[in-house]
Amino acid sequence: MTISTPPYDALAREKRARLRAERLYEQVKRELRAANDRLTEHAFALSDQIIAQREALCLARDRAESLEGVNSRYSQDLSLANERLREAVETLEDGFAVFDKEQVLILANQAYLSVFRHFPEVQPGIRYKRIAEICAFEGLIRLEDISEEDWVSKMMERWTSPTISPMQLHFSNGMSVRLVERRVANGDLVSLSNNITETLRYQSELIDAQHKAEAAADAKSAFLANMSHEIRTPMNGVIGMAELLAETDLNDEQRSYTETITSSGQALVTIINDILDYSKMDAGKMELHPDIIDLEKMIHDVLSLLTPNARAKSIELIVDYDIFLPSRLIADPGRMRQILTNLVGNAVKFTDSGYVLVRALGVGSSAHGQMVNITVEDTGIGISRDHQDHIFTEFSQVEEGACRRFEGTGLGLAITRQIVSAMGGNIWVESDLGIGSCFGISVELPLSPDAGPVGPVPLPDTIRTVLLISDQLISREITARRLQASGAKVQTATQIGAALRNISNSRLDLAIIDQDLGTEPADVVVSELRLHSASLPIVMMCSSMAEARALLDRGDLRAVLPKPLLWRDLLAVMGGPGPAKTTPAAPRPPAGQTTKADVRLRVLYAEDNKTNQLVFTKMVKDLPLDLHLADNGRLAVEAFDSLRPDMIFMDVSMPEMDGREATRLIRATDAGRDVPIIALTAHAMQDEIDRILSAGMNAMLTKPLKKSELLSALQDHAPQGLFPQAG
Length: 727
Ligand code: ADP
Known about the structure:
A 5-stranded antiparallel beta sheet has the order 2-1-5-4-3. Strands 7-9-10-12-11 form a 5-stranded mixed beta sheet, sandwiched between helices. By secondary structure, the protein is α/β, with parallel strands linked by helices. Helix 5 packs across helix 16 and helix 6 (252-282) packs parallel to helix 10 (412-422). Strand 9 and strand 10 (369-378) form a beta hairpin. The chain is built from 20 helices and 22 strands. The protein has 6 domains: 15-86; 95-195, Beta-Lactamase (2-Layer Sandwich), CATH 3.30.450; 202-282, Orthogonal Bundle (Helix Hairpins); 293-445, 2-Layer Sandwich (Heat Shock Protein 90), CATH 3.30.565; 465-574, Rossmann fold, CATH 3.40.50.2300; 597-717, 3-Layer(aba) Sandwich (Rossmann fold), CATH 3.40.50. Helices cover 47% and strands 18% of the residues. Bound molecules: adenosine-5'-diphosphate. Residues 342, 346-347, 350, 378, 380-381, 383, 391, 396-399, 408-414, 437 line the site of adenosine-5'-diphosphate.
């Protein structure tokens, strides 16, 4: 049965249904929109990703493409470089090879392999040891004094050694190589063999040339030495005879001619010595022979030798030796003396009046020794600025031209500079024209082991107050300063009158007087002092012994000391430490009077040259001695046996047997052990002196012989009492 519903209901239901449908629709629409939005977002994200990836991809692709290009370029370059390297290695004239760490040859150029062209197995792949074996056992290498096995072992030791030193290989075909091997980081060994055949040839040619040059220099020196000997021998005749002639009765004109002959002859000898010495230095032959020297004494000795020249011009010679500078030092004695003689000799030569002052100053010490400055100051002609730069070079003299006043070779300072620089020192000059010059050297000298203490030496208690009379300002000040440093009270005066006024009330212990007081003669000064005090000990500083002798003989003086004053001599006469023998207090017998009146000195003179024999004979003819001549060394030895002379003068260069050999033979006998033997030589060079003294001779005289030197040698070396002492 169908129940009919009212139409309202139906509408309502339909409306509700429609409303539900509409709500559903809206909801679905919202959901769809939301889903759509999400889809859009996702799509965007995806497209971003795709874009990014595409970009990355593009980039990557681009990179890959470029890398591929680089890579192929690299590999091209690499093979090109390899090719070039191979070509370069091939063009090397030196052998080049590389071994891996298993000692297998991996690469070698033709230069390397060509040495082994008769051994086809020497190819990349061969081992280092096998190559060494081929070298040794197949006679490829010249083995000097080593067996094949040992040589191979030596090469294998190189392989294992951490540092491989270069070695030379000499091949039997005449080629020489320098093998330089290096291990690289990966263990490979790179081997480079430089062909040094030509270099060695040049080297041996150079050594040959050097030997020839040395032989030529030796020949030159020998020639110069012989020439100088040849020149000196006749000069001996000229100078010796001129000296003898001067002792005869001559009128003034004749005397002046003889003096000119003597001085010209001596100048010629000096020139020969300088040239000979310089030529030796020029040939690089200067050797230093360091020995203990007494520098203070040496300075005095050099000045003493120049005293006659200085006295002739009234130049005062002064020494100022630093009280704190040890006197015993180490240096080549001959060369040191030569430096001093050159500098002081020049100072005296170029000074007409005033003084020459030698100062030795210690200027600090180091581990090697003592720095010493020696200056030689004069009041001479001086040297202009322009000339000061040149005077140390050879043959450089300020005075030029024909009207020269001073003699000389212009070599002295050049020689001096060479010696000073060989000693590692410096030389310099300061000078003002017309005022004077000061030459200085600065050298570092080791101290002698027995250098001893330095500083002031205290005087004996008996010497408290000393009177010092001298009108030489500098030397007076120097002596006074030293006396004061040693604790004495010193009263100084320039003349006796002033001295007596000052000392009237003082108690004096000693007076030191300069012999050359300008105003008063020395004997007057001594007499006046004696009036003041009869017992006052008086010491005279003298430049002429002969003049002081009368005072000494009268017993007026305690001692006479030569000027310049050697401090230790003064100390000795005051009773302080010092060599007592330097006190010549006791008067000596006058010349010509022997102590053993009947016994005459027997002298043997060995000399082959007749002129020299004549000169010697004439020089000694008035002396109290008996002379015997021998013509050579052999005859001298025979004469020594038969005559038993007290003293021998021996020429060094003689035919048949020279003087050194003859001396050795005489020294070997009991009787000849102590006989004084004086060498006579024309070679005044240091090495000659050393050789002569080492042959057993006591002293040396250089030719041309001077009578004064001959006399001194007799006085110094004749056995005691057989020859009169100096007058
Ligand atoms: P020589 O003295 O033999 O000429 P040196 O080489 O010793 O040669 O000296 C070179 C030059 O230097 C001398 O000729 C002289 O002109 C100058 N001379 C050297 N010492 C002095 C000095 N003390 N006073 C002035 N001039 C000097």
